[in-house]
């Protein structure tokens, strides 16, 4: 599903009159979650899931076929863990 299709789905599911309103709602949600994660705050939506920012440790390794090695830095990465309600709805849709 691409963005345009998702906007239409949100419009019908949310009862928005126009696609512009639905797109504004999606944009507000994504910006709010992003802002919270930048502040390293978790966002918990009961029944849907949890968004969090986690530290991914750097690693070192060797490039196959050569003697070159590499290292990566520690960085913050977004993480989503699905809630029980979402898992149950998806399992029932099989």
From TrEMBL:
InterPro entries: Hist_DNA-bd (IPR000119), IHF-like_DNA-bd_dom_sf (IPR010992). Coiled coil: none annotated. Keywords: DNA condensation, DNA-binding. It comes from the Bacteria. One of its GO terms (cellular component) is cytosol. One of its GO terms (molecular function) is structural constituent of chromatin. GO terms for biological process: chromosome condensation. Belongs to the bacterial histone-like protein family. This is HU family DNA-binding protein. It comes from Candidatus Sulfurimonas baltica.
